[in-house]
Every structure is written in C-alpha cells, then in structure tokens.
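To: structure desk
From: M.T.
Subject: fold request, one chain
Message: Could you run this one when you get a chance? Sequence is below, nothing fancy, just the single chain.
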Amino acid sequence: MTTSEPSRPNVLVIMTDTLRPDYVPGYRRATDVAGLPGQLESRMGVGARTPALDTFAAESAVFERAYAASFPTVPNRNDLHTGRFTFPHRGWSPLPAELPSLAEAMNRAGYSTQFFCDTPNQVPMGLYRGFHGWEWHRGQEGDRVLNDERIQVELGCAPKKLRGNGAGYRQHMRNRAHWESEEDHYAPRTLRSGAAWLQQHWEAEYTRGRAGQGPARPFFLWLDTFDPHEPWDAPPYYTEWYDPGYTGEELAHANYGRTDYMTDAERQHVKAMYAAEISMVDKWMGHLLQQVDHLGYRENTLVIHISDHGHYFGDHGLQGKPYQELYWLYEGLIRTALTVRLPEGRGAGRRVTSPAQPPDVTATILDLAGATLPGAQGRSLVGAIAGDAASGTAGVSSAGGVASRAAYTSRYPILAGKVTPCAISTEEWSYQYWPGQPEDERLYHLPSDPGQQNDLRQSRSEIARELRAEYLAWLGEQNPEMRQWLEAIERDPAYRPDSPRLFKGML
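Reply: Done. Structure tokens follow.
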C-alpha cells in the first residue's frame, strides 16, 4: 500500500461452528490417534483432509487444550462478544443490551469493523451489535427463508432418524433447491464475502492515503460460518473421498441422543459427511487466507481460527449434542479449535498445552488492539504464544495466558428444572461435576486415557474434591447465588430452585 501501515494490527476472526480439532491433522494432540471415540478412519487416513488448515497451523500457535466455556452455540458467542463467562448467569439468550460488546470496543479504538455470517442464530440474537457493517447469508438449517411448497424434497432416510423428524432438514433442502455450484454453499459464501470486503477495505485505505487523509485504519473482520455443523451437504465428491460407493440411507441431519438407531455403516457415513464438510470449509478458508497475503496484510494481521464446540459421533454411545437426560460433556463435545497467527509470525509452530477459553480470545484481541472492554474477564494469550511478557490493556493481563489452570465448560447449570454438569478440564484431568447426581460424575486422567474410558472417580476422589472446590470458589465469584443453589442441591437432590429471576430469559 502507498499509505503507511496502521500502528496496531488488523484482526481477522474466523469461527467455524462444530469443528472438532481432532479431525484436523494440524490441530491434533499427540494423543488424538485412530480408534478414539468419534474419530473417522477411512482410506484418507484419520479425520479429514485439510491442507489449508494444516499450513495455517504450522504458521501459528495451536492451543491443544482449548475448551468451550458457555455451551453451546449462542452462549459461546456471548462469551466472545462480551469477554465474560455467560453460563453462570444465563443460557441461550440474546447479547444483553446493557453489556458493552467487543465490536463497540474496537470501534472506539479506531478500527473499521465488519461482520459476515451464515450461522442462523447470530443476527436474531443480536450478536452483530456494534459492527459498522454486517451481512447474514440466510438459509442454514431450518431458517424459513424460502416458502415454496412446489419444491419436492427427498430426505434420504427415514424421518425418525433426523432431528425434528426431518422438518428442519426439509426446509434446508428447499432453501438450496436453486443452487448451481459449490460456491452457493454457505461457508463459501461467507468466506468469499470476507475476502471481497478485505479488497474493499484495502482500496478505501489506498484512496484515503493518496488524498492525504491520514494513516491507514486497521480492520476488525469477523466471519462466522455454521459449517461444518449439520446438515452435512457438501458436494458429493468430498464425501466420496471418505466413504466411496455408499448406497445406504444418508442421515445428513442426524438425530441427537443415543446412537443405537444407526447401523455401523450409517454411522461411518455420517462421519464421512462431516469430514466432507470440513474439507469444503478448508478449501474456502485457503482462498480467504490467500487473499490476506495478496493484499499484503499477512505481517500486520492477527488471524484467529476458532470453533464453538465439537460433536459426538458415537462417542460413549452418543450422537450430536444430546440434551434432556444426556447432558454429559466429554472431550469430543467440549474441545474446540483455537489457532492463532500473530503478526510477523511470532510464536509460529508453538503448541500450547495450558487451557484456554473464549474470554481469553477476546482479551487477546483487546491486548493487541490497544482496546478496552469494561467487564472483560479473560487473559490475553499473547504471552503464552510468543513466550514474552507483552503488556496487556487496562484490565487485561497477558502474563499467565489463561484464565486459570482449569477450564470450566457448562450449559446454564439449571435448565428447565434439571441440573446440568460442569466439565472441569486441566492439562491432566477431566472431571464431570454433577451437583445432586454424584452417581453420574466421572473423572478421567487424560494423558493415559485420552478416550475417557476409565472412570477414576472412586479411586481418585481427592482429585475430584479439589477440582470441585476450585470450581465452586470460582462460581461464587461469578454468581454467589448460583453457588448457593448448587450446594443446596448437593445437600438435597430433590431441591430445585424456583426463583423467576433465576430462569429469566432461559430456554
């Protein structure tokens, strides 16, 4: 560019919903090997084929113990856009109007901000708030964007094998009835929009520079694509990579719960369709990252690739993101992708093993942007990536790199009158703490048992007690009343709080 480079880095955030890091070779831990629960093994090897993401991983720092905090989709985005832990206070709910947002903070810091999404619940939940511009590519899942009953839809399998008896998938298939090529799929649309906007920003700053209107403005671009979330409908040639010649039923929007409604062949094909969707996303992410390079942005751009949660594919007999009585939070569901490429390649190739969560991502952006967000709770990951003591912004510390030595992942702890567990994850242990249901608690030693097959809750009860105490102390800082309620439930499992305020805004 003819204009001077901005003094603060550009920021590009790419969210891919439901991406399991163990399906991406470059994102895996050493223990993410064949035979673990939910993993795909095919003629292509283990997991998906992801050359663009593997290259990106080699250029970046990979967080091997990144975990969701507030679960699932919308609470996770609330964590990111507010920098605060959501689940101690509320569940699936809009971005609160009274809380400041990350985009607003970046605006105040002088950034040009833009948001593109195809994830269907982002705009209805206000998660675009504060961006100078935003666009929603509509039609994912059951989004009622097209009501044309002349379009005949084949579900591909018995309706009972699909979520909602096939209603959402039927709408999805209507929405895509007029597509002509791979470029019409949602992830390609969102990622192409991002690449086009980067060119627009470059040209605008080029014009400003030629007119002598001041130094270049940095950008903050957020791309949020629902893929590889189901429905899994990547072009068939991708699926053929992983499960060639399959002729059975296709469960492209497979039901949640226990997996006993699937045959082994169907389960294999479901994993193949998921891997196909990951490979499609990988291709278009490669185009986006190539655009960053072509525009000369690489050396001064922070690029963060994240996911919000994983997905069960037969892990412990479970499929999808089960709810109702199936609330268990194993690694296949709560581990997330988190890969960070710092400007000038600092920390490239680093594998970070300390836990990290969404508020830490927000803190990292604030740290490097020189922005402040009141109430933000995470810690910048810059120190953990670059191995230095980079100073943070006001209220943000970069020294430790993580919010605590443990990561806490939970739905809102009390949902529709039922108590839900919290997964407490450290570098060594995974503990599912379940107030009032000690018979359902599980404790696993991750280095020796990455598949979480050997429950040590009884033999190592002192570890469970220690992790429980640390969690409740943390929860008491977040929401003292919630801690009191959970402790009351422990004393009397029949107890259920009925405070209207507790359930305000909950689904």
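Reply (cont.): DSSP finds twelve helices and 19 strands in the chain. Let me know if you need anything else for the meeting.
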